[in-house]
């Protein structure tokens, strides 16, 4: 197909015109896309269309034609220009997560998320690999989750770009339509051409290839974009439907050679005297370190998982005792809402991750995907199986940005859990802590232990470690959490370059 393949820009032949859609009216093509929009909405398939290209190549006109016939209630256009001050307080992919389509939406990005790589001044193979890795992983995540991703690059000649810039200079919308980047690209056209070519080749994905659009003739370019959009949504529906049918047909083989929980020492205790002596000292030290992170613009992300009734809430309460409440947010994670279910499962966490200098504490976390969603069948086997890599990638993105990620697994044995459940039932002030689900989960103890073991084995990393906390004695657990929290932050801060 014209416009695809690894030749990309450097050997592009502007005389080889793609005129497959020349005899169609743009309005008719748009109406056909509108029909497909209703189909993907019914099938709950999100559609993400990336419109990138040279500055002054007509992206705005193309997007107008692309969206004009669609139901405006279910289509959004998001502008991806320079990152804002808020964006810089998060990993670079954070702002992309905020703008992704739900399962009933078509979202068009004016400039793709790869544009932040295309417009970098520093250009080298190492930098290209580093900057595209996070973005490609995100794109693969979306594709695996059933998103249709369509990518366009509008290509024009140097002279055409120059003429377009001159025309825009006379427009009353000049201030909005022209930027320094337009002139910069035109002045250094050949240099940008070579760099764009490298970026496009690096980010060309079989399931979502770049479509290079000859934008010398904008009307024909619009028809071509509309026609390819029709083709790719149609083939995307087939791909996603087939993937859903195969979701539970897995030949998964995973074996853990050395389990951790069976041999873990749960007998650890601390005396009341030692507990009272250490608690406040550690709490104040933790508070001081959180403040140090605030002054150094380091985000802290702390996740608590564990066996039901293991004492997550009590540990969180003691951890935050002396920390300024304005500096942290505690997220109690429950079953996802209808809105949250209409997005990729990680979306509801990306909307909660803290900005630089703040702290977020998760009482339950994104690990629900490989725990309760695995056990209860809320996620298919292929979905929760690929979640281990997706989670590791997400945590690496966070820590590569400079954030601290630490995870606590609160562990008690089966007998201790039974005793705590019974105590909760007998004490009126604790009744709210026990539900039928808790007892049902207890009946699945072995299944949960297997899931915990695999989670700990596959997602314990140097950048985002798990700390297994012996919680049969609550006081020991609370002190142990504080000590790990303090040591982890100290180690992180000691590795920061001196300002």
Automatic annotation (TrEMBL):
It comes from the Bacteria. Residues 23-233, 270-493 form the Polyphosphate kinase-2-related domain. InterPro entries: P-loop_NTPase, PPK2-related. This is Polyphosphate kinase-2-related domain-containing protein.
